[in-house]
Amino acid sequence: MKIMHCPLNGPRNIQEFVYGGEVRDMPADDASDTAWADYVFLENNAATVVREWWMHAASGFWFIAERDTRTDEILRTYAPDDAARTDAKTGDA
Amino acid sequence: MPFGLLKFGLSKTYPARRILPRQQDLKSRYDVVIIGAGGHGLATAYYLATRHGITNVAVLDKGYLAGGNTARNTAIIRANYLTPEGVAFYKESMDLWRGLSDEFDLNILYSTRGHLTLAHTDGAMRTARWRAEVNKHLGVDSELIYPDEIARLCPQLDLSKHVRYPILGALHHPPGATARHDAVAWGYAEGAARHGVEIHQHTEVTGINVSGGRVTGVETTRGTIECGQVLQAVAGASSLVAGMAGLKLPIKTIPLQACVSVPLKPFLDPIIVSGSLHVYIWQTSRGELVMGGATDPYPLYSTRSTLDFKEGLMAHILELFPFLSEVRLNRQWAGMADMTPDFSPVMGMTPIGGYYIDSGWGTWGFKATPVAGFRMAECISTNRQPDLLHPFRIGRFESFGQVGEKGAASVGH
Q: How confident is the model over B222-248, as a mean pLDDT?
């Protein structure tokens, strides 16, 4: 059984979680159709460590996971507001 | 006896038939470079050489011939899709499939079995009726049938009403078939090589050279090649190769798992699929049951197998065939599938001059091998998008013109 660590509920079976796609910035309201099509349909689909949205289905809790898409190793999980604080501190986008 | 066999094997009187010529040195220039020596890449090379007279072609692969998804699919061939665009495309593929053994003078074990897509809900019945009408309109043999007819075609199925998902009906597709996947790849490879196409295995492309919006060549682990045209046919790694050319694709790479049982006496004629239960099962001529289901729930560049998948798959298989509960599995594997948002391929011209793409082969790539090769060869030789491939153009997402192929194996109903 593969375990994922939910920031709210602790370690749980991976089957309790739903994948929600890569963490990306949403285009501005007045962005072009091309920019929106890119956001909605196109994928970076990188073979590396990627930041992704995941949800714990039983509690409906959304969080961010850092996962290696080559090995399926989950390196880190954290609540999105923690991410915002970390980003503000380090200045990372 | 063993000595007799050895003597026969070593005798010059009976030389082993060599299918491909020995690997040559890479030339510094080809007219066309095809990245990926799987079914699609080899079929394109074959049709370029035999139909369009383009023979100065190199097919490159970082691994060995037909060792990727060509070897990892479950070899089901059908044309009973939902959209008119999809049905027309896969119908042409089936027409080509039926002629391949003659064309190659090699038995590809094409076997017409009939194909049943079971419906367990009112929604699935509606989809089956819809698919049957679209299919018949385009000349593809499909019909909605009810449990009495299903019992006649496949008496082994549990058709009782006392199960979790009783079978209400099925989309019956009599031309549904299977073929030997290795034979198809080797048939195309041998035919292409006979016409002068060079197949270079263990030759990895590490870069794609583009200058002034046109492709000028590729970098490989065995040196630089100049060329005027490049096709990428590397489903599973499409985003990575396209990224070398600066293209971004609407593709997630998601594992698709499958398995086979130990061989059993022949008992199952048709190919059985259930979209609602996410399973498909058929019996090979060797007696093994080939079984598969939906793709994994999230993206991954790996061909690992999981117990979760088998547990879910077997729970549903046993609902259909309870008497298989004591049968053991023989092998398990996974392929990396190019999943697109509309369950359709991404094929043809790209914004880069001379660069062509054959990708987005999710769970529907094997059955498309002949038509993908046939039409991509036309695309490369004429440098325009064939009409049949227009719905699958790379730019359809920007204009919000998706195909919406809900007849794909991975789509639940």
A: 97
Q: Would you list the DSSP string of B219-270?
A: EETTEEEEEEEEEE--TTSHHHHHHHTT--BS-EEEEEEEEEE----S---S
If DSSP codes are grouped into helix, strand and coil, which group holds residue A7?
Answer: coil
Going by pLDDT thresholds of 50, 70 and 90, the confidence category of residue B406 is confident
Final residue before a domain boundary, out of B284, B304, B339: B339
- A42 close to B (CB below 8 A): yes
CATH number (domain holding residue B161): 3.30.9.10
Distance from CA of B81 to the nearest CA of A (A): 23
What was the ipTM of the complex prediction? 0.89
Check whether residue B118 and residue B213 sit in a common domain: no
- From A19, A33, A43, residue closest to B250, measured CB to CB: A43
In this structure, are B165 and B256 located in the same domain? yes
Q: What are phi and psi of A3, to 5 degrees?
A: -110, 135
Q: What is the pLDDT of residues B87-113, one digit of tens each?
A: 999 999 999 999 999 999 999 999 999
For residue A58, being part of any structural domain is answered with yes
Tokens of B62: 């970082």
> Quick one: pLDDT at residue B9?
80
Give the pair of three-digit tokens for residue B162: 């006392």
Domain that holds residue B38: 27-112+176-250+341-413
Q: Residue A39 falls within a domain, yes or no?
A: no
The CA distances from residue B210 to B30, B248, B321, in Å, are 16, 15, 54
- CB contact at 8 A, B364 and B273: no
> Do residues B237 and B334 share a domain?
no
| Nearest residue in A to B238, CA atom | A45
Assess B341–A contact: CB distance below 8 Å, yes or no: yes
Does A48 lie at the interface with B, CB-CB under 8 angstroms?
Answer: no
Please report the pLDDT score of residue A83 as a whole number.
64
Closest residue on chain B to A69 (Cα)? B300
In a domain, B238, yes or no: yes
pLDDT value at A88 more than 60? no
> How many whole angstroms separate alpha carbon A92 and alpha carbon B220?
35
Q: How many domains does chain A have?
A: 1
A67: containing domain: 19-31+46-93
Window B:262-321, CB contacts with A under 8 Å: 297-302, 304, 306-308
For residue B45, pLDDT over 70 is answered with yes
Asked whether residue A41 is assigned to any structural domain, the reply reads: no
CB contact under 8 A, A69 and B400: no
Asked if residue B413 has pLDDT above 50, the reply is no
Domain boundary among B339, B354, B386: B339
pLDDT tens digits, residue range B113-154?
999 999 999 999 999 999 999 999 999 999 999 999 999 999
